[in-house]
Amino acid sequence: MDALFRADEHSRLAGRPDAGASEAARASRRLPAILAALGAVLVLYLAVPFLVGFASLGRADTIAAARDAINAGAVGVSVVTATVSTAIAVVLGVPLAYVLARGDFRGKALVAAAVYLPLVVPPLAGGLLLLTVFGPRGFVGGWLDARNIQIADAWPGIVLAQVFVAAPFLIVAAQVAFAGVDPALERVSYALGVPPLRTFFRVSLPLAWPGILAGLPLAWLRALGEFGATVMLAYHPYSLPVYLFVQFGAQGLRAALPIAAILAALGIAALAVVRAAGRRW
Amino acid sequence: MLTVAAACRLGDFTLDVSFRSMHRRTVLFGPSGAGKTMTLQCMAGFLVPPRGYVAIGETVLLDTERGINVPPWSRRAGAVLQGDALFPHLDAAANVAYGMRRVWRGREPTRALALLAAVGLPGYGERRPADLSAGERQRVALARALASDPRALLLDEPFSAVDAPVREQLRRDLIALVEARDLPVVVVTHDFDEAHVLGEMIVVLVGGRVVQSGAPADVAARPRTATVARLVGAANVLSGRVVGREDGVAVVRAGLFLLRVATPAGRGERPVESVQVCVRPEGLRLGPAGSHDPQAVEARVLQVLPRRVGATVLLAANGTRLEAWVAGRPPAPGTMVEVAIPDGASHALEPEAPRPAAAAVISSQVR
Prior knowledge:
The complex is a heterodimer of chains A (281) and B (367).
Chain A: H1 2-14, H2 19-28, H3 33-55, H4 59-71, H5 74-102, H6 108-120, H7 123-134, H8 139-146, H9 155-179, H10 183-191, H11 196-224, H12 228-233, H13 240-251, H14 253-280
Chain B: E1 2-10, E2 13-21, E3 25-29, H1 36-44, E4 47-48, E5 51-56, E6 59-63, E7 68-69, H2 72-75, E8 79-80, H3 92-97, H4 108-118, H5 134-147, E9 153-156, H6 164-181, E10 185-189, H7 192-198, E11 201-206, E12 209-214, H8 216-221, H9 226-231, E13 236-246, E14 249-254, E15 257-261, E16 274-279, E17 285-288, E18 297-306, E19 311-317, E20 320-326, E21 336-340, E22 346-349, E23 365-366
Parallel strand pairs in B: 3-10, 3-11, 8-9, 9-10
Antiparallel strand pairs in B: 1-2, 1-5, 4-23, 5-6, 6-7, 11-12, 13-14, 13-16, 14-15, 16-22, 17-21, 18-19, 18-21, 19-20
Helix pairs in contact in B: 4-5
């Protein structure tokens, strides 16, 4: 992702080549057919299910199913929890990413490895592990339960499950972004009399922001689509993926497909919003 | 004005420097890898040597014996790092305003534009670093450092990325700027011409140690060791033996030459002692072959290279290679000439200092 930004920079600096030059560049960049063919197979495989699946949707059915999903609260639950989860991942994950990118301390390798732990286990297993802590008999969940604060089978449970699986994506994106910021700029800032914390907000964070921004939809979509850990920790209230699973089990493919369409639409919308924001930056 | 001492080890490199400058413009000069940048980083506070002392004017910034170590952001040392390191997300004015202190609150934009004008960039406030030339970026970096009201300016190879004519102008402007503001400046460079132009005092670093310091003209005229002689362009270093003493100077035989050279105290007293002698290229006297100059030795002209004024003549005198700078018409390559080394054109060099014992310094912390 870092390389992508740099490539953009180069093409911007190089300016717009005239038509003749770009023709020549195209000729020199003719790709081996076998590579293109292999790529095409995969692209087809990735795209065809979307075309076939969504083409089979009847308009009336879809609208009705969407209305049901909204009425059941699943769309609202998912959009709100995914947004809250992403916000938590940003507030806690960006500082962590900076520490991992810049820090030089004992045990850094262990911390870096811990970030990848949620990726090591399937979300279903992750949810199981979360239950041992936040479930009604877990040491945190039990303590809160005694004070009438419910985590499992409640909104906080959904958020916890989503943060667990989505945060690593944001941390990794932000870490790469911070690593791409020239440390000399931070040192210059110190030399100009600006202490480290203010330097972080005035130099490191603004320069890493495009990279962090690129990680936001990844984390948000991961949270939005989170099923495994959520279904373990918070079966209720229904988030969209859980609702999809329930509908599929109760009424089959025809009933569940429109919910998949809603998820896809939300995902595309999220990517579009971040792209627009990135362009304005 | 400036006192610096630092001893530290980084990997297998050992820095052990100490110097004091009472001049406004001090140059740290030496080959790459000599420890110039490390020394500057000790001054800026980015490197904390286990043993060290840094004072600018009356202000002590580092004194490991008394446990004083002012953090970089409180030193106001005016460090401008290698390359210009402008903030790419800020325009020129915002770059300059970046480190302004509280007393300027509300007046930052006006002052930023004034400082940009002072470094020769009037009306450049809204330019982005990416749209500036190397020379302009360097000027913005200078204005930005000045804006932080520093106690000094520490410049690390400030003009190395700039074309020669622009570099010349930047040097002049820098001198005018620090003279007008009465601001001490330390410049790191590996270019002796630059050191000569910018420095009122030159500190020569080789292998992590100060091997010589003094006025640029003195260092150029009397390099202390063979390494310094090579660095300042005093190209002729001859090996010889002391064969006697006359009127308080040593008589040295080097190849066919018999030289009368001043020697440092305690050296060249005993005969048959081997010494190295530095002969400045502009000091050699060239004449046509066949004269009866008793000091002269026959030499073959190997190569003639034009200089801006006169020429460089490369000679071989019975196996001794010599470089001479001549002002008038140079002799033709391949011809025989006579070359003489007049009294006063040479001086004895000191042996290279041994490397400091690595065990004496413990490894340092890098901030």
